[in-house]
Amino acid sequence: MFMVKNFKKSFYLLIIVLITLSISSKQLKTLTPPDAIKEPHYLTIHDTTLVDDYYYFRNIDDPRVMNYIEEENKYTDKMMLKTKKLQKKLYNEILKKVDKDEISVPERRDSFLYYYKDLRGKDYTIFCRRKDKENSQEEIIIDVNELAKNYQFFDLNFGEISSDHRMLSYSFDTLGNENYTLRILDLKTKKNIEIPVIDNITSFAFNKYNDGFFYTVQNDISRSYALRYYDMKTGKDTLLFQEDDERFSVYVNKTRDRDYIFLSVSSSTSSEYYYIKSDDRDLKLNLLVKREKDVEYSFDHSGLYFYYLTNKDCINFDLKRFRIDSTIENSTTVIKGSDSLMIEGFDAFESFLSVYERVNGRKKLKFYYLATGDSKYFDFGEDNCTFYPFSNSSFKRDSLRVSYMSLKTPSTVIDIDVKSLKGVVKKVEEIKGYKKDNYVTEYIYAKAEDGELIPISLIYNKKYDPKNLPLLLNGYGAYGMPSDPYFSTSRLSLLDRGVIFGIAHIRGGGDKGRKWYIDGKMFKKMNTFTDFISCAEYLIEKGYTSPEKLVIEGGSAGGLLIGAVLNLKPELFKGAILSVPFVDLINTMLDTTLPLTTGEFEEWGNPQIKEQFDYMIKYSPYDNIKPTKYPNILVKSSIFDTRVMYWEPLKWVAKMRDNKLDNNVLLLKMRMSGGHGGSSGKYNWYEEIAFDNAFLLYYIWNIQR
């Protein structure tokens, strides 16, 4: 009897094991990664032949391409099924912290107060105004939720309020391809004014009389190339300026005092400027400064002077001025840049200039007083912080409004009295349960291969000793754009689970001035990648993390960074996230029919030139994939992205699958709506963040709580 019972028990256990193995086997079959069809394409350039097995991915009408995209998305969905509960938990954590009604601090413009609302349960913003008097009634200008309700994707650019407050210009994109369509809204009737269909708009300005407007448009390769004027009384549309050099783009803006319309004609390394008096019915374009190789300008106006920034005499820019009845040759210097001080920008008001500087890598706000020539800095109370001015439309004012934040300080709206430098906090982003003092920030330096010191910004929860913790290191390093220390509510879910977050302020960005940028572009681009690797190695050396816990991330040109670094040092990292990554460098820079290509020859190089090709091919992420072990990787892209075409990450993933010699996870998430900036709607955005964080926690750090 005993033997029979034990036999039956063993038999049933065997059956359960076999069923389990059968199920596991089926799951393994189901979860086999997609295998893209190869179709070799041969390109011979400068005696080098490049073989591209996935060149045909460029043809979206080829059914194999869409089939492969669907296979990759299905595979990702199945692989992420086991993280669904975690995703939901992370999503709810974000909602718990931020899902509430938010109303902005109103901005006074003449007799109106303008503001916007983000309401709980609504994906999009509602723009409002009311009269600046007690008990005045709220007027909804635009409810973006209503405009967006029939679209999967919707992005609105809130344009210009006419000076008589009767009209609003706005534009919208319903695909994610950044083709914006213009509308002029009558603020009394709340109906759009009848004008011809104007697509591809890139900038806009009403004239002084509010009966016509200037606008710029882009061509079929997304280059803003022409300035036009539309007369709202006669319906006449006039071409005022067209730029045929494909390296240059044109944009229009109106000065804050409403007296001048500026036209900038700029490449990534030089610029030319014109102005039109906003009350000039003849629409005469007047040249301010002619373009010159490697010389840049930006202009504003106040009183009797044109004020401008230029790098003509100083690599980190000088702020200068000349009288409006004179010429640029008669300029005088207002503020001089230096090797350690870069002037990034400025705004001109009636009695002062607000000047935005970067001193030894730290962003600073300076006020320059026009009457005396004196200047003073405003102290935010944190060295490693960032800020941006906003809601400062009025020319005559005695305060400046800024939004200030740091890695641990939420977005804080401050009105700064220009004379006393007293800052009045108008609003602090409310985050339920958040306590700033629970987090520690550090600003440290790693030594690069050539001895340069590379700053790293870090933040972590103080209840975790920062020793051998999971660490997420972010990088960009391109176009001279600084990687400023920004606050992120969604990041708290990682920090509170013992993750350190870091930003590597590498060369190619503008974190330590213009030279920092120049030393990370063209024939010095390798500095960007080796700087990032030096930062990673330093964090490991100092015990913050280890190769088993270090993850890297970057988007767009930052995706090129991550792709290049993975080829150079794959063993240094446990995982990587690449968002809309620019990874097919050579093919893209050879195709001048694509958006941005020609304009970016000055950033990356032109592979038609042998010397430049020889340098670019050394680091091109797609061309340097090799048979080796790579870490766990998540790649994200959008089918309608016009900045980095969908086929770049698609090809990169297919080639990576064909070459990698490991069993680590490689996932591609191709969004079928949206563009370079991802999905639209705040709740979709929260879901994307929860997805990313779940991938990190589950597949890389094995943190499933």
From TrEMBL:
Coiled coil: none
A Pfam family per the record: Peptidase_S9
Single Gene Ontology BP annotation: proteolysis
Protein origin, superkingdom: Bacteria
Boundaries of every Peptidase S9A N-terminal domain copy: 35-422
Family: Belongs to the peptidase S9A family.
Name this polypeptide is given: S9 family peptidase
Domain Peptidase S9 prolyl oligopeptidase catalytic positions: 486-699
Keyword annotations from UniProtKB, A to Z: Hydrolase, Protease, Serine protease
Record's keyword annotation contains DNA repair: no
Molecular function terms, GO-annotated: serine-type endopeptidase activity
Gene3D superfamilies xref list: alpha/beta hydrolase, Prolyl oligopeptidase, N-terminal domain
